[in-house]
Amino acid sequence: MHTFTFVTPGKVLCGAGAASDGRLAAEARLLGKKPLLVCGKSLETSGMLARILATLPEAQVHLGVPPEPSLTDCAVAQAAAHGCDSVIAIGGGSVLDVAKAAALPGSVYDYFDGKLTVPEQALDALPILAMPTTAGTGSEATWVGVYTDKRGTTPKKASIRGGAMLPRTVILDATLSVSCPPHVTAYSGMDAFVQAIEAFVSRGANPFTDPLALQAAFDIAEWLPAAFRDGESLEARERMLIASYCAGMALNTARLGLVHGIAHPVGARTGAAHGLLCALLLPPVIRFNLGADLDRYSDIAIGLGAPREDLAAFAEKWLDDFSIPRHLSDLGLQRSDFDAIIAETLVSGSTKANPRTVHESDVRDVLEACW
Ligand SMILES: [Fe+2]
Predict the structure, then answer these.
(1) Poorest-confidence range of 23-27, 187-191, 295-299, 339-343?
(2) Domains with residue ranges and CATH for the chain
């Protein structure tokens, strides 16, 4: 018997060139007359923004979302959405997350502090159209946004979630990700790989998320090296966009695990790229979870062509292949941060979904293994 909820965006359109050939504009006009277009500066410098606006001149543009966005970045985007009736998000995970916050009717600080609950009905917020430019966070498929709260002395990274933050429409256009540099391709691709693995072994996994998560992991293993080597390959880029979207659909209700539980407090303190941290933390977390003799890792190992006991080594090899740093000590973290990181990890929703129960000493062991 199962008890679960499964939700996905209402429509996904996949097609190279859709951003600028009129398909994005047509989909946007189904959601509203005056959209706020949230994007990063690279969309402007590449010339793509001008091509999009040529087909969608009514859009109001909000440019320049930084990596690991803060609540203030969200509040600024919310103000920019004043007078708009829909939100178009085109960018990496940070842009998509800020755009989701811009669509909300109340103060982003109140949602973050738990004083307000995100409406479950999409009708209570601005409708969102999401186009990812990186194959990574899968944010286009989820009702979650991850933000850094910089109000206190120590930055705190946490999520806001709810039905109204789920995009109504998703467009996957591989031409938007061909300019993504190799290191960003690797980091974001590893985030998607970790999300697929964590969603598959999560306590929240269900019969709908299982095939999505497993296929995403296999497809990323097959196509991420190609996208890393040859960024111009539209086929590799499209396969990665589809795989990370599938991983996003899976994690949205299956939740994640200990890698993400640790990555958020470490990311808030170091500013290190989220996908880099996920890649670095994956091997010791797999070793910890394998200690509980979990059958699900066998399914992953079979598909990846690796012996079950060698899964962590398989993940470790990618760190070398993609030139990903192996040590937290190289990222500006201090050992004196460990106690606070452990405390934040243990209360995280991701950690609670980890298939093996996590104790304080387990988190410390993982941190030490990456030190
Ligand atoms: Fe992630």
Answers:
(1) 295-299
(2) 11-176 (3.40.50.1970), 182-369 (1.20.1090.10)
User: In terms of DSSP H, where are the helices of 174-310?
Assistant: 182-201, 209-229, 234-254, 258-270, 274-290, 296-304
Q: How many angstroms does the Cα of residue 85 sit away from the middle of ligand 1?
A: 29
Q: How far is CA 210 from CA 25, 138, 198, 323, 334, in A?
A: 34, 16, 11, 30, 37
Compute the distance from residue 189 Cα to the ligand 1 centre, in Å: 10
| Alpha carbon of 160 to ligand 1 centroid (Å) | 14
CA of 247 to the centre of ligand 1 (A): 10
| Mean local confidence (pLDDT), 190-209 | 97
Taking residues 306-329, what's their average pLDDT? 91
Contact between 216 and 246 under an 8 Å Cβ cutoff? The reply is: yes
Closest CA to 265 of 350, 344, 352: 344
Measure 278 CA to ligand 1 centroid, in angstroms: 7
Backbone angles phi, psi at 291, to 5 degrees: -60, -20
CA of 166 to the centre of ligand 1 (A): 17
Q: Compute CA distances 270 → 5, 121, 251, whole Å.
A: 35, 36, 25
Q: Given a cut of 70, is residue 122 above it in pLDDT? A: no
Predicted pLDDT at 94: 94
Check pLDDT > 90 for residue 2. no
How much is the mean pLDDT over the chain?
95
Q: How far is the CA of 102 from the centre of ligand 1 (A)?
A: 21
Tell how far the Cα of 244 is from the centroid of ligand 1, in angstroms.
10
